[in-house]
Each structure stands twice: as structure tokens, then as C-alpha cells.
Design brief:
By secondary structure, this protein is α/β, with parallel strands linked by helices. It has helices at about 5, 25-30, 55-65, 85-100, 115-130, 140-155, 190-205; strands at about 10-15, 35-40, 50-55, 75, 110, 135-140, 165, 185, 210-215, 215-220. Helix 6 links the parallel strand 6 (about 135-140) and strand 7 (about 165).
Length: about 230
């Protein structure tokens, strides 16, 4: 409403979310001729444009350092539903990384979680309650991973000696938890530049291109090793 009432020339939408549920609101922006860009997934059927990270490849990078360490029972914590396309792409990258080295997906090692520390904490407690072998966890976000770390430490599991842990995003807190969190860094400065550039292009009736920013693995102590 703020944008279409001419109090703003355009809007940048940020944050993980349920894009199927939000579809009606995006369609309302389309119908009103609003100028908007999204940090996140590439959505079809909408006039807005997106700038995003290669989530699939990012999660492959998250899993790969664990495999040379002998981790074979690696869990995924985060949403897997198509309602959350960024998290789903990360889940599919996790599955692909395991399948590439011949490790079959174990359904009991997949736990749904919102992008909150408490969700990661609860999901990890549920994983541990199954009593199955667990030697690694990759998370759809750093906030989830920080909650996982707390749950592991409270239950007497050493990170990374017992369980390797990897997040996604490289938020500032990732470098300050103990142990430091191995994670996937998204170039948020470049993302911000592209979002503004593309939004101005829409306002000036130029056609911006879809953009995917390559993610990068940042290795800290929580994974227990360095990639070859």
C-alpha cells in the first residue's frame, strides 16, 4: 500500500518466507503496477525481479567438508517444502552432495525448522531423541545452527569432535559462538548493490536481469576440518 500510494517509487523485499502464501500479496503489487525487487528465489509469474544466492550449490559446499572427515550420518535442519524455495534448494543441495558420494538419504535425519534459534534447538533435540547415529548437521541458516549448537552442548555432544556443524548465511554472530561456526557466506554488499540497481532499472523502465551471486564456504572450528 505504501508503494502504490505514490509515497515511494519502489520497494525491496527481504527475508525468508512462505512464498506460496505471499503469492496473493505479490499479485496485488503486480496488478497495481508496483516496482519491486526481491532478495531471494526467482519467482515465475510475477513482474518483480529477484537477486539471489545459488542456494543449491551453497549447501553442496556446506556438506562437502564433512565427507573427508568420515561423516556419513549427516542431518539437515530447515524447511524442505516448496513453500520455502530458498530452504528447499538448500535441502536439495544437501541430498545431491550425499548422493554424489553414494550416501542414501535417511529420512529420520531430516528435521523441519523455521529460521529461528529456538527452532534449531527443538529440531536437534528431536533428532537426538530418535537414538539414531548422528555425526554431522547442516542447517538452512546460521540462526538455526546456533540453536542446534546449544542443544548439542546441553546434551553432552562435543562440537566438532562428536558432531560436525555447518550453517548458512555467515551472520556476524557466526564468528563469535564457541566453537566458531563454519558456514556459507552470501555477499550481502553485492546483493544490496544489485537490488538497488535493478529497482532503479524497473522504475526507469529498463529490463533488469535475474542475478545469482555465488556463495562461498567459510571454514571455522565447528565442522572439525578443512576442505581438501
Amino acid at each position: 500500500r505504501y508503494e502504490v500510494s505514490a509515497r515511494a517509487d519502489g520497494i525491496i523485499l527481504l527475508g525468508y518466507g512462505d512464498y506460496i502464501t505471499y503469492g496473493e500479496k505479490l499479485r496485488a503489487l503486480d496488478d497495481a503496477g508496483a516496482h519491486y525487487v526481491i532478495w531471494g528465489p526467482e519467482l515465475t509469474g510475477h513482474s518483480g525481479h529477484s537477486v539471489g544466492c545459488d542456494n543449491f550449490d551453497g549447501m553442496r559446499q556446506a556438506v562437502n567438508p564433512l565427507l573427508p572427515l568420515g561423516r556419513r550420518n549427516v542431518a539437515f535442519v530447515g524447511h524442505t517444502s516448496e513453500h520455502f524455495p530458498e530452504f528447499r534448494q538448500r535441502y536439495l543441495g544437501y541430498v545431491n552432495a550425499l548422493e554424489t558420494v553414494g550416501i542414501a538419504l535417511q529420512d529420520h535425519l531430516v528435521a523441519e525448522a523455521d529460521n529461528q534459534e529456538i527452532a534449531g534447538y527443538v529440531a536437534t533435540k528431536q533428532l537426538l531423541a530418535h537414538g539414531k547415529v548422528l555425526d554431522g548437521i547442516v542447517c538452512a541458516s546460521d540462526l538455526i545452527a546456533i540453536g542446534c549448537l546449544r542443544a548439542l552442548q546441553e546434551t553432552g555432544h562435543s562440537v566438532p569432535s562428536d558432531v560436525s556443524l555447518v550453517g548458512f548465511d555467515d551472520i556476524p554472530a557466526a564468528a563469535y559462538v564457541n566453537p566458531g561456526l563454519t558456514t556459507i557466506r552470501q555477499d550481502t554488499r553485492r546483493a544490496g548493490e544489485l537490488l538497488v540497481h535493478n529497482l532503479i532499472g524497473l522504475i526507469e523502465e529498463r529490463e533488469p536481469e535475474q542475478q545469482h551471486i555465488p556463495p562461498r564456504l567459510v571454514v571455522r572450528r565447528s565442522c572439525g576440518g578443512h576442505p581438501r
